[in-house]
Amino acid sequence: MKFGEFDISTPLCLAPMEDVSDPPFRRLCREMGADVVYTEFAHCEAVVREVPSQCRKLAVSGDERPVGIQLYGSTEGAMADAAGRAEAEGPDFIDVNCGCWVKKIANRGDGAGLLRDLPKMARVVEAVMRGTRLPVTVKTRLGWDHDSIVILDVARMLEDLGVRALTVHCRTRCQGYTGRADWSWIARIREVSAIPLIANGDITTPADLRTCLDLGADGVMIGRGAIHSPWVFRTLRHWLQTGEPLPEPPLRQRVALTARHLVEHVAYHGAPRGVFSFRKHYAGYLKGAPHIAQLRRELVQLTEVGEILARLDAYAAELPDDGE
Ligand SMILES: Cc1cc2nc3c(=O)[nH]c(=O)nc-3n(C[C@H](O)[C@H](O)[C@H](O)COP(=O)(O)O)c2cc1C
Questions:
Q1: What angle do CA 56, 275, 253 make, to 5 degrees?
Q2: Of all protein residues, whose CA lies closest to atom 29 belonging to ligand 1?
Q3: Could you write out the three-class secondary structure of 199-256?
Q4: 66 preceded by cis ω (within 30°)?
Q5: Atom of ligand 1 lying closest to residue 20 CA
Q6: pTM of the entire structure?
Q7: Distance (Å, rounded) from C-alpha 214 to C-alpha 190?
Q8: Ligand 1 center to residue 122 CA distance, Å?
Q9: What confidence tens digit (pLDDT) does each residue in 59-90 have?
Q10: For the segment 189-211, what is each residue's pLDDT rounded down to a tens digit?
Q11: Is 212 among the catalytic positions?
């Protein structure tokens, strides 16, 4: 699959995730084997108004490429303008969010709201294509609800428009995160469209990856699985290359990864905000650690990075020599 000048077979992609897929996390996931990373979504009108918090989301760096900047919104002029501004940051492609399910976004016609008005979706995507010379991709869901699944029409329409890749979170907007992602839609999309296709939703294991590839996906995208286990990309790539499972990284390595990510996260977000927002990673990074519940309780009570690093060091020092 092509991502600008990069040609990647079976890309394993880090999902765009607000408050998660920031530059430190994207870099970490690239090191852990993610082939392609996406920024958090930025709202087109806020970008055009130069709202600092949104413009900051557009910043990408050379060492994380290939990287896509994701935009959302439904005002065509602002989408075109924002795409041009995003291009100036140096990404490899621009992704259009047509899948965000959050009420205040979807109900005003942005994100998954575009699934209720496909002509509008087409105009928004065309506006982005007018605003940038970069390849444009789209990420969406199956449809608004179970009775209005439109993904087959969407795939055909976007392929005709020249969209370079389609990522499908295989749930409807109304499902939010309930139920299971229905990957069988990947095969149905494949029957009607040749658009490069990235499967998304509940993918964490080699078996999930195998199923999605067998159904016709060209690549997969991982969101929540990476929040807990950023090494998931390495595990999946190893399995693709060898057919063998890869054990979880030893606990000592995971403690070191926690410390390193914390430092980079706080350097980016500042303290104490970054200390608080990092807490979502502890449970996954330290899964299976002896006395994890107590360790987590202690870590979430600390507000100084230095104190947290000292506690992690002390914890690592108590681990047996084999690192587990
Ligand atoms: C914390 C969080 C933030 C998210 N933010 C975005 C976003 O900015 N743009 C987007 O397209 N999807 C966003 N998503 C959805 C994910 O990209 C992905 O489609 C969804 O989580 C399903 O994949 P998963 O089962 O691998 O997590 C977000 C998901 C989470 C959990």
A1: 100
A2: 17
A3: EECCCCCHHHHHHHHHCCCCEEEECHHHHHCCCHHHHHHHHHHHCCCCCCCCHHHHHH
A4: yes
A5: 1
A6: 0.97
A7: 11
A8: 22
A9: 999 999 999 999 999 999 999 999 999 999 99
A10: 999 999 999 999 999 999 999 99
A11: no
